[in-house]
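[Solved] Which block belongs to which protein?

Original post:
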Amino acid sequence: MKQLFILIFVCLSIHTLSKEPRVYEFVGSEFPDILSYDKDGVLKGSAAEIIDTASKKLNFKYKISLYPWIRATEMVKYGQADILIGPYKTKEREKLMKFSKNHFYEDQIILVSLNENKVEWNGDLRSIKNYKVGVVRGWALGKTFEKHKSLLEVTKAESTDKLLQMLQRKRLDIIIVHKRSYTDDIKTKSIDINSFRVLSPPLSRQKGYFAYSQEKELDQFMRAFNGFITPPSQRKKP
């Protein structure tokens, strides 16, 4: 009788453990409106909302960690984390990770120069091949940039802030960034936004996804998770 009781207890314990929700590790960088800390130190933004809503419906737990963008990408690439938040889709990245079917935000890729710098920009990157161009290290800027970047004199920096400072000091003529970062992510008080101008037309428009490690068995989870990712054009307006 005692042995039967022990067997039943063990079986119940195994059953209970099997029902414990899995913990998925999401990684990314701080981006306005997508993933950023509020004044209370709580992560907010569209990505955080998607993850939290999906966790309640699909019964999983999660951890969101913020790192420099290149490090976050490498963590997913090598299976040190499960899912990368917000990457644009490129051929190179598709070799390293798998992307969600749906995207959840869109960005304009823009060129910025000093007001006083009379840069001639017609939408063709070949027209700025004689200018000093700055980009953020590790960012994807679209197929057009990838096609013509070898023609450009490109300098890389760690953030939009750094690039704007380099523009102010006239170490660069033009920077190429996404519009959201330019308008919302400037943290350095010494930067006077009025001293810059956005060149027209935009270079391109990019879509942001969730991407997951090929080192993990996440196909089934991501198919379910994708049901909670709604492209901006399909969302109901408030």
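(Second protein starts here: sequence line, then its structure tokens.)
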Amino acid sequence: MPSSPFALRQHLLTALTALVFGFLGAAIWSYSGLADNRTRSFLLDNPDMLPQMVEAYETQEAELRLAGLGPEVFVEFPGAVLGNPKGSRVLVEFTDYNCTYCRASLKDVDRLVAEDPDLRVVIREYPIFQGSDISARMALAAAMQGKYRAFHDAMFQTGDVRAAAAAAKLDMARAEVDAVSDAVTAEIARNLELARELGFAGTPSWIAGRKPLEGAVGYDRLKAALAQKAPG
């Protein structure tokens, strides 16, 4: 599943290439050879236009999908939040503890939180890697004890559920029950469905301001997107 965004991008790139050169073929049939040659030369001299077209198309489609969702995507599972729990500026992150890019992005999120006391970071546990369901469930169980941040950080540091739970000082008897509760199961199912509706297929994925983003996009892109007012 994590590789599917690349496959989708390649598919779109192929389709757009065919579309562009299909139009070009029609132009060659209809117009003067000089203008056609200039158009063809321009496209061949600027092959980076096609990936840019794909990215613009993907962004447009993701924004349309986001606009079609209700406010639910901006509402955290109780306790599964970083930064200011009552902040009016919202960053949503779909994350997986077995994702190295999610781990690398933690410093960007921490920097954004440190700089903006009004930022609320809604974490959506999105376990798409093998074995990630256990850590995602324990993270939500930690949220139910008010210890989400401690577990979240420790899990990325250690990569071990038991060690992270110990570091967060969880009540393990309670956590093991909560981890398999209907509430936690429903939350993970909800996150998987929200990601599907948004067209997300990898981690990390984000909603920053009005902009859905995929991948370890970095601090600058997240900060710029957050400058826009979030929908809802």
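Accepted answer:
You had them paired correctly. Confirming on the second one: The first strand starts at residue 81 and ends at 83.
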